[in-house]
Amino acid sequence: MEKISQITTGKAKSLYTTNEPDQLIMEFRDDTSAFDGKKMEALDNKGKVNNQFNAFVMEFLASKGIETHFIKLLSNHESLVYKLEMFPIECVVRNRATGSLCKRLGIEDGLILDPPLFEFFLKDDELGDPLINDHHIESFGWATQEDADAMRDLTLEINDILVDFFKEANLILVDYKLEFGKFQGKMLLADEFTPDGCRLWDKDTLTKMDKDRFRQDLGNVIETYGEVGERLGMKIKLD
Ligand SMILES: Nc1ncnc2c1ncn2[C@@H]1O[C@H](COP(=O)(O)OP(=O)(O)O)[C@@H](O)[C@H]1O
Ligand SMILES: [Mg+2]
Predict the structure, then answer these.
(1) Domain of 57: which CATH number?
(2) Looking at the domain assignment, is residue 229 inside a domain?
(3) How big is the chain by its Cα radius of gyration, in Å?
(4) Which of 38, 41, 94, 227 is deepest in the core (most CB within 10 A)?
(5) Residue of the nearest CA to atom 8 in ligand 1?
(6) Domain range holding 196?
(7) In a domain, 19, yes or no
(8) Measured in angstroms, how far is the CA atom of residue 165 from the centroid of ligand 2?
(9) Residue-wise pLDDT tens digits, 178-206
(10) Considering only CA atoms, which of 195, 186, 197 is closest in space to residue 232?
(11) Cβ(12) – ligand 1 distance below 6 Å
(12) How far is the CA of 51 from the centre of ligand 1 (A)?
């Protein structure tokens, strides 16, 4: 697969066109950001760890019938994906209250949310990714009601699959963010699923094993992502 030209560079990944017009190379960089890009740092091996972590989760979801943009791994830090028309929306599911939810509504940290709580956010760093609902999505034309419903249903279906997947590794899937896009009229899971975009707590000690280690300066960020991968049975290559 030929890497032709860079089309986007986000906070953590870059996308390149290829000789196949409907396929892109997604490069995972070491850059790490938090607080809508206000805190930035490069962490050794993050690109490799997250690329392989994402591939493992995307392939696992595909084995459970979830359609994703992921095609295959190309190298330790690059994957081939379908080129999608992305929705400017982030889909969040929370199984426990923490972070911005606690701040926004005065909820106790760690509260179990049953049923899991679903939220839409507008993907816009300058605005601080504000909370939105179906009516905003419809009124501003960010997606049709049908597509908004499909994103919510898929995000909740993925929750059922991933809660059990992480439980096997003695981890609590506290919350996570997904992005979706359309490929030839079909809704596909896009972007990434890595410890950068979810919260994982050790089931016994409640130790944070996700990007909160970076946000809160807890140290050993990428070593901990690697430990999560190992617990899930990944063989991450760093050469
Ligand atoms: N399959 C895809 N096709 C097109 N764009 C994608 C696809 N998957 C993810 N993207 C977009 O690529 C960018 C990924 O880079 P990232 O560094 O995460 O950016 P951001 O700073 O916006 O979070 C995001 O804007 C994401 O929405
Ligand atoms: Mg991103």
Answers:
(1) 3.30.200.20
(2) no
(3) 17
(4) 94
(5) 191
(6) 85-220
(7) yes
(8) 23
(9) 999 999 999 999 999 999 999 999 999 99
(10) 195
(11) yes
(12) 13
- Is the Cβ atom of 82 under 6 angstroms away from ligand 1? yes
Of 86, 142, 180, best ligand 1 pocket probe by most atoms within 8 Å of the beta carbon: 86
The total domain count for the chain is: 2
pLDDT of residue 110: 98
Same domain, 58 and 165: no
Q: Do 34 and 23 have their domain in common?
A: yes
- Is the pLDDT reported for residue 213 higher than 90? yes
| pTM exceeds cut of 0.70 | yes
pLDDT of 37: 87
Give the model's pLDDT for residue 36: 85
List of residues 6+ apart from 174 with CB closer than 8 A: 94, 95, 96, 98, 198, 199, 200, 201, 210
- My answer on whether 151 and 96 are in the same domain is yes
> 81: Cβ below 6 Å to ligand 1?
yes
Model confidence at 82, pLDDT cuts 50, 70, 90, reads very high
Compute the Cα dihedral for 69, 80, 64, 119 and give only its sign: negative
Q: How far is the CA of 37 from the centre of ligand 1 (A)?
A: 15
